[in-house]
Amino acid sequence: MTLDEPKPALIPEFTVTDVERSIRFYIDILGFAVLYDRPEDRFAYLVRGRAHLMLEEPVGRSFHHATLDHPYGRGMHLQIEVDDVAPIWESAQSSGAPVVLPLEDRWYRRGDAEVGNRQFVTQDPDGYVLRFFESLGERPGAPRG
């Protein structure tokens, strides 16, 4: 990914308590890379394949209208598609990252077919919930009814 390539239409920005700690977690454990950062603003823009994510430690202006309480991001989680989920799962396990859902193969109905995910769910240091998955493809679904 370069700065010249088009960015996704939706890029989450996480407020974090310690931007350096969060950057290390996303790089060392989950395999992201810093596309660019602004240390003076406590900000980093991360990428992993087609997944984009911004991290910001609140200094100066803030868009929050309520107190942030841990775990952050309650009520949502991010699904991140990768080519091979196993190395990320192994890295998360060996680092002691929280496991919300262990590695599994799961099939979901979509219309008259099923799509498969090999997936696991973890949390970052501020409690944001992240589901990493690789596609298992599609198969005919069970009849509805």
Model description:
The structure is a single chain. The protein has 145 residues and is mainly beta. It has one domain (13-58, 75-140): 2,3-Dihydroxybiphenyl 1,2-Dioxygenase, domain 1 (Roll), CATH 3.10.180. Helix content is 14%, strand content 42%. It has two helices and eight strands; from the N terminus they run βαββββαβββ. β3 (43-48) and β4 form a beta hairpin. It is globular. It starts with 12 loop residues before the first strand and ends in a 5-residue tail after the last strand. The model has no long low-confidence stretch (mean pLDDT 91).
Strand content: 35-45%
Query: What is the helix/strand order?
Result: EHEEEEHEEE
Structural class: mainly beta
CATH class: Alpha Beta
Helix content: 10-25%
Characterize the main sheet. 4 strands, mixed
Dominant shape: globular
CATH topology: 2,3-Dihydroxybiphenyl 1,2-Dioxygenase, domain 1
Query: CATH H-level name... which superfamily?
Result: 2,3-Dihydroxybiphenyl 1,2-Dioxygenase, domain 1
